[in-house]
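dumping this here so i dont lose it
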C-alpha cells in the first residue's frame, strides 16, 4: 500500500454508493486504492456534495419578507423577490458595492466548504462585473465552480445585446438566463444561437411559478433546465427525448410557494436530475437540508437522493472525476462521525446521511 494518507471507515463506494467497510488511499489528491478491511471505526466516508444551482450574490441579503401576511397565512410573491429587472434581489445587487458583494460571496463559499460541498454552479447576475466578482471571491479557495453569467442589456438593438453577451462569455463558462417571460423571445433566440455558435453552455429557468414559459424554453433546447416545478408529463417527454438535464430546487420552490417539482416523474423518464439550493437570500447552501427534504417530503429513495446531490451534479457540471468514490477520482471526501449524538444508532449509513445527517456530524473534509 503506497499512499500519502489512508482513511478508514464505512465507505459509500462507487456510483451506487454501496457501503463497504475498509480504507481509501489518497496520493497527490487522487484516490489510488480502495480496499475492504475491518476498520474498527464508526466513521462514514462519503463523496462531497455538488450544489447544481445557486445565486450566491444574494448572500448580501438573507432575510427578505417572502410576501404579505393575511392574518397568520403568508401570500407568496415570488415576482417581487426575484423577477428581473425590478425584483428585490436585483435592486439590492445594483446598490451593493463591489467589495461588499465579493466579501459576501466569499463567506458563502466558506459555508459550502464547511458543510460538505466541493463544487457548485452559479447563475451570476450583473453582467461582466458580476462574473468578475464571483471569480475574485473564488481566488482564495480550491473550489470547482461553473459560472453562468447573464448580460445586463436585454433590450434592442440586438447587436448591442450580443456584444455584451460576448463580453460575459470571455469570463464565464456560459450563460444562465431567467425565464422566457422576462425578455423578448426574438432576443432570447438570438442570444441562444450566438452562445451555441461559440459552443458554450446555455442554461435557463423554466416552469418555476407556472408552466407558461416551459414550451418556449424547450424550443431553445438549452443545455440545462432549472426548476420545471410546474412541468406536465408532455413537457417531461420532450425533455427526456432531448436528453436535457434538469436541476431542481426543492426547498426554494417550497419556500416561495412555487410548488413541488415532479421529480419522481423526471426520474421515471430517465432525466438526469441534479439539486441546487438556489437563492442564498431564501435558503442556506446546506445540502444536508436539501436531502432530508427530498427524502421525507418528496418520498424519494435515499440512494437516488444522494446520487442527485453528488454524482448527477458532477455530471451536470462536466466534472467526471468527482461525485463518487472510485479509484482515479479526486479525493473530495467528507468523513462523518457515526458515533455522534445524531448518527449514533444508524444502521444503514447511506440512509442515515440522507435522512438525518447535519453539518455538525462532519469530522473532517478532504478537498482537492
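and the seq i came up w/
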Amino acid at each position: 500500500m503506497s499512499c500519502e494518507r489512508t482513511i478508514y471507515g464505512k465507505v459509500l463506494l462507487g456510483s451506487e454508493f454501496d457501503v463497504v467497510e475498509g480504507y481509501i488511499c489518497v496520493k497527490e489528491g487522487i484516490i489510488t486504492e480502495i480496499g475492504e478491511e475491518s476498520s474498527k471505526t464508526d466513521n462514514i466516508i462519503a463523496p462531497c456534495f455538488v450544489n447544481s444551482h445557486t445565486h450566491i450574490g444574494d448572500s448580501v441579503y438573507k432575510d427578505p419578507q417572502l410576501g404579505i401576511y393575511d392574518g397568520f397565512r403568508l401570500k407568496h410573491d415570488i415576482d417581487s423577490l426575484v423577477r428581473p429587472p425590478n425584483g428585490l434581489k436585483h435592486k439590492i445587487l445594483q446598490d451593493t458595492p463591489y467589495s461588499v458583494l465579493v466579501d459576501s460571496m466569499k463567506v458563502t463559499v466558506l459555508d459550502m466548504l464547511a458543510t460538505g460541498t466541493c463544487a457548485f454552479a452559479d447563475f451570476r447576475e450583473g453582467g461582466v462585473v458580476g462574473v468578475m466578482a464571483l471569480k475574485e471571491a473564488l481566488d482564495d479557495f480550491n473550489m470547482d465552480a461553473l459560472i453562468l453569467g447573464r448580460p445586463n442589456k436585454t433590450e434592442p438593438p440586438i447587436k448591442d445585446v450580443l456584444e455584451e453577451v460576448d463580453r460575459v462569455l470571455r469570463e464565464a463558462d456560459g450563460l444562465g438566463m431567467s425565464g422566457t417571460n422576462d425578455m423578448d423571445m426574438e432576443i432570447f433566440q438570438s442570444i441562444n444561437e450566438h452562445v451555441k455558435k461559440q459552443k458554450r453552455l446555455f442554461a435557463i429557468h423554466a416552469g418555476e411559478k407556472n408552466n407558461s414559459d416551459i414550451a418556449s424554453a424547450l424550443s431553445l433546447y438549452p443545455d440545462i433546465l432549472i426548476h420545471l416545478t410546474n412541468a406536465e408529463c408532455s413537457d417531461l417527454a420532450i425533455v427526456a427525448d432531448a436528453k436535457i438535464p434538469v436541476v431542481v430546487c426543492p426547498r426554494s420552490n417550497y419556500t416561495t410557494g412555487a410548488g413541488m417539482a415532479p421529480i419522481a416523474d423526471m426520474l421515471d423518464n430517465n432525466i438526469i436530475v441534479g439539486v441546487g439550493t438556489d437563492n442564498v437570500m431564501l435558503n442556506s447552501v446546506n445540502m444536508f437540508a436539501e436531502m432530508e427534504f427530498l427524502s421525507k417530503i418528496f418520498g424519494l429513495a435515499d440512494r437516488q437522493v444522494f446520487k442527485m446531490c453528488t454524482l448527477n451534479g458532477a455530471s451536470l457540471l462536466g466534472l467526471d472525476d468527482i461525485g463518487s468514490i472510485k479509484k482515479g477520482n479526486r479525493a473530495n471526501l467528507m468523513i462523518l462521525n457515526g458515533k455522534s449524538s445524531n448518527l449514533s444508532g444508524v444502521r444503514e449509513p447511506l440512509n442515515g446521511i440522507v435522512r438525518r445527517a447535519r453539518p455538525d456530524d462532519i469530522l473532517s473534509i478532504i478537498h482537492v
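The chain has a mean pLDDT of 94.
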